Amino acid sequence: MFRKTKIQLVSLFTLVFFFVLSILGISLYLYMQKNSLASIDEKLRHKETYLIQNSSDELNEEKNERESERKVSYLFWDKKGDLLLSNPKNAFYKKEISSFKPNRNDKKIRTQTTGGHSYRILIHVKQKDELENFPSAATIQLVYNIDPEVNVLKKLLLLIGFGCSVGLLISFFIGLFLSNRALVPIQRSWEKQEQFVSDASHELRTPLSVIQTHLELLFRHPTNTIEQESTTIYKGLTEVKRLSKLVEDLLTLARTGSNEQLINPEFFSMDELLRNIVEQFEPIADMKDIKMEDEIEGNIIYFGDKERIHQLLVILLDNALKYSVSNDKITIYSYKEGGNLRINIEDTGTGIPEKDLPFIFDRFYRSDKERARATGGTGLGLSIAKWIVEAHGGQISAESRLYEGSQFVIKLPIKNHLSKLT
Description:
This protein has a 5-stranded antiparallel β-sheet with strand order 2-1-5-4-3. It has 3 domains: 148 residues, Beta-Lactamase (2-Layer Sandwich), CATH 3.30.450; 75 residues, Helix Hairpins; 154 residues, Histidine kinase-like ATPase, C-terminal domain (Heat Shock Protein 90), CATH 3.30.565. It contains 10 helices and 12 strands. α1 crosses α2, α1 runs antiparallel to α4 and α6 packs parallel to α7. By secondary structure, it is of the alpha+beta class. The longest helix has 74 residues. Its main location: membrane. It comes from Ectobacillus funiculus. GO terms for molecular function: kinase activity.
């Protein structure tokens, strides 16, 4: 898939760069051609004006010009199209002169190639009161050799052609480089998506298989009462709840990449929210003989999504309880630190292996998969926690030592939020 996309991108980049280079080269050539011919045309018009005003002096003036300079040649034609006079006399061969013969369709100024030479020709149609020294003349041609300009333009065209050829090669390598760079994030996203789908399918398959198994067990004893099959029903219901939570978490993570608004901020008391959550978890901790302590700074008003912050804290406290055993301790700290609200959740539980610590916020990542499955974990909780913190403009980090405990640190900005109250 990516190979085909890469070829398409390289082709597109190459064509675009080559097209731009070609346009620039052609524009340069046309600009130089226009400027060269414009200066020659201006000189021919100047000669034409001077010839009309001072016919005899103009021809004599040409004799006084330096030999090294290119001269304007004059060809006088009668009404029948016969040559009356050529000045200078030996400027052209007879075969060349015949090719200059004017006709009605000729433009005022044109370019003509004859005998391997290029000329710029200005045609002047004689009026009644003009050129009294040449009464039989009907048309006068002012002819100027433009070989030097044509040669320069040919060399320029060759250089442009060579430059475009080199540019085509360069644009191919640039296109290859840019396509590789462009495909890197896309390929990573694709791989993550494939991994996500694979992991989600695996996680969904397990509870579905369990539910199917327990439903099949019910059909083995169709005459049994609900009380007799209560254990089987309870196990199936447990898996349904686990499946429902997994689907809900998957939907939450899927929506984080869309434009759907998932954060609904409001002002609320953070210390009150923290104390309510601690009170909810204290009975569970007592049942597991785990001690819970808190040091929560009072009068902290925060602007954020109360439900999402509640979800964040529940995820972290639930993890702390799952990986703590009898006589362990969980401590919750909350206080202002500069322009941030800092929340620490520490435990003295089993901890996280050092090799797993950098990946704990990845989706479906679990350092101890068998244990996580036994405790009902899906590997999505910490991913959701990280998203909630980042959606509020904050940061979350973790520190842990195996068999010594873990600490999750949350920093949420409150400076801007508090300013809205005043």
